[in-house]
Every structure is written in C-alpha cells, then in structure tokens.
C-alpha cells in the first residue's frame, strides 16, 4: 500500500545536509525519497518537491494551488489564521496610519522606506513622468463607449510598450520604467473617465500629492473646480495602501507567470489587470455595490438577504463577506471600516445603499452561521462604500484597486526577474481524456 511518512530518518542526503535541517520521507512501493523542508523567516514550512518528478515520475495535484508555494518572496507576509499582513516586515496598520502611498510604493519596490532625499527624487520622477503621449487619447476615444474601464486599462498598459519602447537591463533604466508606470497609469485612469463623460482632460499638477492629483484629474472641471478635502485624500491614500500587495493572489501570480516568459513589464502588468478584473478577485468591490443595489430595489430587507445567502439552494450570495485566505477578520477591513465611518460622518452623506450596508454588517456579525464559517466583512465590503462616497463611479472601482495594487505587481515582477534560479512557469496536469484512438474519416462518422 503506497504511503507518505513525515519524519526525520537517520540517513540524510547530501543536499539536505548542505542546505536544510529538516526533511520528509516519501515512501512509495518500498522506495524512499527525502524531500527537503524549506522554512520561511516567519516559521512557514514547505516541502520542496522540485526533484519529485525526475526521481519518481510523480507530480502533485493541487487544484487552485491552495497548498502550493510558487516562489520564495521577501515582499509581503500574511497569516490568514491570525489576521496578519505586513509589507517588507512593517504591519499594514502602521503604514495606513503613518505612511504616504508613494512611501509604501517605494518600500515594496525597493525593499526599504526611502529617506527624505530619495522620497523627494521619487516624487520628482513621478511628476516628470505623469504626462502621457497625446496619441493615447485617440486610442481611448476609439474604444466602444460600453467598454469596461478594466478592459481598456489592460489594453492601454500593454500599448505603452509602443509609445515608450526603451526598456534596458540596467537598474536605472528599469527604475525609470517602473516609475513611468506608476505615474502614467494613474493619469490614464483619470483620462479614461474624463473621455467617457465627454469632458476635457485635466493635466496633473506638480504642486499636488499623488492622491490629490488623481482626484483633481478625475473631478475638476472648468465649470466647477474640484475642492480637495483632506478626509477624501486620506481615505483614498489608505485604500491604495491597503491594496498595494497581498502575496501570491490570482493577479500577482499572473504577473509572475507571464513575467517568467521574460516579457516586458508592460505586458506582465497588463496580464495582472486582466486577472484582477474578475468578480472573484478585484471585481468584488463592484459586486458589493451591485448587491446592495439589488437588496435596495427589492425592498431593502437585509435579514431576508442574509437568509438567502445562507441557503445552499439559492444562488444569491453576499459579496464582501469571507475571504479565501483569512480565517479571521481581514486586518485591512478593520482599517478601512474606520476610514469609512469617519468619511461618511465628515461628508454627511445620506445614501440608502450605505444604510443597507451598515444593517447587513450588523446582522452578519451576530449571525451564528456567518461567525462559524468565518464570513466576516472583508476589505471589499467597506472599500466599495468608501469609493462610492468619494464619488468614484461603480465601473471604475476595479480600476481603483488596480492603481493601488500596481506597486505590488511591479515589486513582484522585479523580484522574480532578479531571481538567480529563475525558471519559466510551466504547471503540469493529470490527463483524463480518451486513450489513443484512430482517426475516423468524415464519410464514416
């Protein structure tokens, strides 16, 4: 009977002696194989199966990669059981409270917080690269009006390669390209919104911060100049910081996988944007508002909505509750909830959807089913409300997520390309189709 034994036999192979202190023993049909155990800096453990197929002919099967580590990374640490999220070792709570988005972006990409000189230079570089080629406006205007902004953004980021083709291999050239992306994608997002409304474009201003500039480019008009409010700027800053990276999620893994083919940075980021578009990923914050709208239009019965969500035979679900990784309260949700409450109070907003959201939250947090299944409100639940309060249109919600996640994607791409043990991503499969059979001529079918 084939079996798997985890232990520490007396004989240790040369590779384990040289690199690791722990290993597991795989026993199949009486044959043993030692598999090294890799331990991360926070005590996480993984079984290294890199030699498994070569020595045994076996592969592992892990649908959805729920138990598979695809890389070693020093960027983000998260613990779903304890509700921990840290960027480069710094708790996200501290960054949300004290850091700017530019500082956080610099931290993720460069591995440390910038000093004053470095931050000033980074700000100058962002301002210098914030304008986009005027021909890009023609591209935007030729998309069908009904196009989703995420589809447009993915295509336009990929198109940046044609407008800014110089991507050398030196550290300076790569840094310029990364800064260019952070600066131009923000401008392009605001541009797409302005074009969709038939408004004149608003250029970025060097006297405004990164967040202030985006809000001004989005909402300023000649008829009604945009009033920059500190509570709105703070809400956007925290929103982007909380979304800046989240370990090896679907979109980040897409950036790494596409990047493993050694494509240019623009193409890799474009792939990440396309993956983020999905309603099970970045599109969840948009799905929250759509769900709240459905509840409102159907009578506003929140308790009935909760009961429907608990019914396995009812396809209705409550997006914004629960998380694939977090088995306790999403640490980002605690932060954005506080920001949400403060923003709504300061702006004195009256919105029936926001009232429904608060009632749903109150019911779900007391419901035994939601508690037993760890279905706590996650960051998407509150971030959708924050974005709506700021004035961001619903179809732009996922674009806002993408702008926040951009530094993390860039950092992950950079880390993977710097990896001396780089390999192109090439998952295996277990084939379940027909065995060999003969071709049947058309007349005999």
From TrEMBL:
Annotated catalysed reactions: oxaloacetate + acetyl-CoA + H2O = citrate + CoA + H(+)
Biological or metabolic pathway of the protein: Carbohydrate metabolism; tricarboxylic acid cycle; isocitrate from oxaloacetate: step 1/2
Gene Ontology molecular function terms on file: citrate synthase activity
A Pfam family hit: Citrate_synt
CDD domains recorded: EcCS_like
PROSITE patterns: CITRATE_SYNTHASE
UniProtKB keywords: Transferase, Tricarboxylic acid cycle
GO biological process terms, semicolon-separated: tricarboxylic acid cycle
Keyword ATP-binding among UniProt keywords: no
One GO location term (cellular component): cytoplasm
Family: Belongs to the citrate synthase family.
NCBIfam families, sorted: cit_synth_I, PRK05614.1
Name this polypeptide is given: Citrate synthase
């Amino acid at each position: 009977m084939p079996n798997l034994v985890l232990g520490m036999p007396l004989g240790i192979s040369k590779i384990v002696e040289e690199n690791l202190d722990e290993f597991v023993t795989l026993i199949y049909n009486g044959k043993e194989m030692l598999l090294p155990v890799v331990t991360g800096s926070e005590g996480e453990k993984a079984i290294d199966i890199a030699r498994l197929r070569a020595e045994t002919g076996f592969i592992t099967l892990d649908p959805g990669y729920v138990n598979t580590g695809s890389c070693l990374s020093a960027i983000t640490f998260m613990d779903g059981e304890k509700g921990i999220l840290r960027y480069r070792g710094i708790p996200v709570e501290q960054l949300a409270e004290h850091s700017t988005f530019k500082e956080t972006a610099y931290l993720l990409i460069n591995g440390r917080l910038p000093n004053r000189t470095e931050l000033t230079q980074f700000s100058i570089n962002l301002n210098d690269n914030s304008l986009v080629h005027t021909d890009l406006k023609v591209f935007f205007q030729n998309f069908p009006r009904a196009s989703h902004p995420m589809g447009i953004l993915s295509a336009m980021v990929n198109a940046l390669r044609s407008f800014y083709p110089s991507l050398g291999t030196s550290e300076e050239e790569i840094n310029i390209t990364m800064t260019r992306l952070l600066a131009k994608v923000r401008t392009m997002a605001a541009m797409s919104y302005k074009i969709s409304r038939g408004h004149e474009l608003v250029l970025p201003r060097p006297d405004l911060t990164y967040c202030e500039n985006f809000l001004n480019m989005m909402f300023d008009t000649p008829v009604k100049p945009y009033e920059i409010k500190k509570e709105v700027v703070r809400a956007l800053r925290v929103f982007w910081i909380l979304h800046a990276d989240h370990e090896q999620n679907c979109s980040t893994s897409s950036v790494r996988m596409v990047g493993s083919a050694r494509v240019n940075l623009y193409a890799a980021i474009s792939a990440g944007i396309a993956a983020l578009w999905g309603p099970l990923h970045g599109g969840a914050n948009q799905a929250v508002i759509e769900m709240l709208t459905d509840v409102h239009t159907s009578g506003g019965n929140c308790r009935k909505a909760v009961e429907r969500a608990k019914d396995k035979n009812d396809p209705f679900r409550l997006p914004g509750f629960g998380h694939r990784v977090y088995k306790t309260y999403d640490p980002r949700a605690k932060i954005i909830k506080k920001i949400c409450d403060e923003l709504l109070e300061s702006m004195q907003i009256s919105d029936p959807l926001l009232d429904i959201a608060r009632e749903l939250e109150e019911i779900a947090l007391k419901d035994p089913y939601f508690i037993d299944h760890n279905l706590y409100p996650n960051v998407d639940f509150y971030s959708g409300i924050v974005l709506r309060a700021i004035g961001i249109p619903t179809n732009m919600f996922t674009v806002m997520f993408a702008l926040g996640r951009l530094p993390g994607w860039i950092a992950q791409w950079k880390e993977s390309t710097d990896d001396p043990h780089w390999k192109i991503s090439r998952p295996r499969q277990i084939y379940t189709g027909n065995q060999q059979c003969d071709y049947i001529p058309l007349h005999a079918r």
